[in-house]
Amino acid sequence: MPQGRPAALLDLSWLQAAVPALAAISEVVGPSFSLPSLQDLISRPQVRLQQRLTDQLHKFRFNELFNSLPPDSTARARLLSCQGPLSSVWLSAIPSSDSKTLNNFQYRHAVAGCLGIALPHATVSQRCICGGEVDKFGDHFYVCHTGRERVTRYTNMRNLFVRILAEADVPFNVEVSLHSLGITLPDDNPNNQRMDIYCVIDGSDYLLDVTVAHPCRPDNSPIPFHRTVNRHGAQLPGGKAAQLAEKDKIDKYRPTTQAAGFRFVPLAAETFGRWGEKTMDFSRCSPSESLAPHRFPRRRTELFERASSTIGASFCPSS
Ligand SMILES: [Zn+2]
Questions:
Q1: pLDDT tens figures, 182-204
Q2: Closest CA to 278 of 293, 292, 266, 291
Q3: 148 Cα to the center of ligand 1, angstroms
């Protein structure tokens, strides 16, 4: 650009109108973000400025929203769970297959769940089969051990991982008795003597156990344990429910299974789609780097789009 041209451009009235907008943005993003002057903006390219600026604005909006919510509240727990890495991929997944498609009913429930909007009781029972009253956000459905919703969500997730293993030509078996693998847990609870998935990947024996944890409970619940759950779920950076679920599984299974020569991996997610770190690692390069990206999953994003859509669809109690 010839000398003197930028100065002439600054005289344009429509460009002058951008000056207050620039000042307003500068005030929002704060002094830590060095926003170029209008003259700099028109005289030379600013590499990735839009992306950096958008990131900063999103951080500001998030902090503003988070700080406006009560400490230890379900709203904070929900927000942190929804904004975890790859947790809301169902919103952007192209519905190119059944496993990435939510019907209208499921979509409405998923959006309501993530935004904290009361579920439409015209279509959802207000009373669980356990006899308990279902709160307006449906938290009861996601934690009840008697109602079928929690089990349905878990089953959908397990079946999805099974399908993905099958597509990757990984030999597997489901609901495997640990005794049949020569493993005996010190805990003699019969429910703990089975493993969701046994598979063989690159010659190594893997045991995978799926779990979906709910990060919040009704704020006004009289049960003290529920307040603890909310406190955990509302802590930055979030993901505590999935992390604790992974820890529970590891404490229970890893020492004994590892001693027997198996690799144990918990596959944990939160109801709002936030993933446990072990699941993220497993999809990234574990259990073997040779699995990614050509076998399991074919594409990491594809895996999370499908898994996230499965969780999204499971918000709907009838799914
Ligand atoms: Zn119930």
A1: 998 887 777 778 999 999 988 89
A2: 266
A3: 8
By three-state DSSP, how is residue 311 classified? helix
Compute, in angstroms, the gap from residue 192 CA to the centroid of ligand 1. 22
* 149 half-sphere exposure, CB direction, 13 A CA radius: 25
pLDDT at residue 293, rounded to an integer: 43
Distance from residue 134's CA to the centre of ligand 1 (Å): 8
Helix ranges, the chain (H): 5-9, 13-16, 18-29, 38-43, 49-68, 74-82, 104-115, 139-143, 148-167, 224-233, 240-259, 277-284, 300-313
Residues within 5 Å of ion ligand 1, judged at the Cβ atom: 128, 130, 132, 144, 146-147
Query: What distance in angstroms lies between residue 55's CA and the mean position of ligand 1's atoms?
Result: 41
Q: Which of 174, 165, 205, 191 is closest to 291 using CA atoms?
A: 165
* Predicted local distance difference test score (pLDDT) of residue 82: 92
Comparing CA positions, the residue from 4, 109, 166, 17 lying closest to residue 319 is 109
Angle at 153 between CA 152 and CA 159, to 5 degrees: 85
